[in-house]
Amino acid sequence: MTDKPNDIDHLVFVVHGIGQKRDTQKIIRNTALFRDCVDWCRKEYFSSTAHRVEFFPVEWRSSLKLDGDIVDAITPYSVLSIRHLLNSSAMDILYYTSPLYGGEVRAGLQRELNRLYCKFINRHPDWKGKVSVLAHSLGCVIVYDIVTGWMGPDTRPPSPTTQEIAADGLQFTIENMFCLGSPLSVFLALRTRTPSNRVDVMPPGLCRRFYNIFHWSDPVAYRMEPLLVRGYRKIDPVRILPYGGVDGQQIEAPPVTLGNGESPMPTSDNDERETESPTETPNRSVERGWSFWGLVRAGWNTREVDTTDVNPIGPDEELEQRLDYVLRAGGMGRNYLYTVRAHTAYWNNYDVAYFVLTRLFPNLET
Asked: Has 63 been annotated as catalytic?
């Protein structure tokens, strides 16, 4: 955070999802990887621009005590490696949905977001730039709940510190909220049978723009638009074009490695250039493979949706802004290994990096 304030137009806080207890440095590496992808796109396609964005990793999991070591104590010794993996990753979902610990998780993330923002502002008191959030997986749900003030059925009296943090809210306004591989719509669907109106789900104060970005093969990601207007289940998400802005365009290959110790996925989205148009993209509930959240609510992904209706929504139902954005399939849908890895494949995806960059600075494409 030593840059001159005039050098940075936009701050983006990068919020992780589950699994950071096992590797607290992972979000730092992923943020560096995504930052390098964005920098490459900026230098390759917008070398003359003076705009600059800085990405700050937000590691909120390691500071939380939650149940102490109770879960570890009750874990049998059989298949320890798998059990430890589940305890350090999937358990975060149970913690957050728990009436005992959900508030503590929200307070922990909110505290860390405000700490990083205040640290930057204290060093640059005259800075007047914008702030956005790039969240992954469960992190999308927690950020949403912090901004909207959702408390949940907490059965444990909150501590004075937790109450004070919740009342203070975030110290900044979110310009854009980018959700990567987000299960947010499932959480919202399970909290209320039918939203009374769109404002209940997407309040104006949440952010200026909301982007739900996902890969067809991601088993954790779900759409937002059909939650607001059911007719959107028959309308495909907006297809994110290949980086560079033109579908099918021949472009220079990006660097294979970025010096962060992690290799890109083989057969990644950036290695295959498809030419199917957005209107030809099928609603692929079958190709997406198994769904983790299908275990929570069975049957959501068992039927193909009929897309033959010409006008599935009325003029008064049309959303003012599209919310769902899908990446090119890239041939990953029928391979279960790639299906699982698709949930973490956003960090080194140049299509995502280019999309985020041009949404942070819309004038780049004008």
From this structure: no
Q: SS in 3 state form for the chain?
A: CCCCHHHCCEEEEEECCCCCCCCCCHHHHHHHHHHHHHHHHHHHHCCCCCCCEEEEEECCCCCCCCCCCHHHHCCCCCCHHHHHHHHHCCHHHHHHHCCCCHHHHHHHHHHHHHHHHHHHHHHCCCCCCEEEEEEECHHHHHHHHHHHCCCCCCCCCCCHHHHHHHHHCCCCCEEEEEEECCCHHHHHHHHCCCCCCHHHHCCCCCCCEEEEEECCCCCCCCCCHHHHCHHHHHCCCEECCCCCCCCCCCCCCCCCCCCCCCCCCCCCHHHCCCCCCHHHCCCCCCCCCCCHHHCCCCCCCCCCCCCCCCCCCCCCCCCCCCCEEECCCCCCCCCHHHHHHHHHCCCCCHHHHHHHHHHHCHHHHC
**Closest by alpha carbon to 301, among 290, 311, 310, 313?**
290
From the CB of residue 335, how many other CB atoms can be counted at a distance below 10 Å? 14
Which parts of the chain have pLDDT scores under 70?
1-6, 19-23, 66-68, 71-72, 79-81, 83-89, 153-167, 193-197, 245-311, 330-335, 366
Q: Extract the tokens encoding 105.
A: 């998780």
Residues 6+ apart with CB under 8 A from 9: 51, 52, 53, 129, 130, 361
The domain locations on the chain are: 5-365
**β-strands 324-326, 130-136: how paired?**
unpaired
Can you say whether the dihedral through the CA atoms of 289, 291, 294, 300 is positive or negative? negative
Q: Among residues 88, 98, 132, 137, which one is catalytic? A: 137
Name the residue type at position 221: A
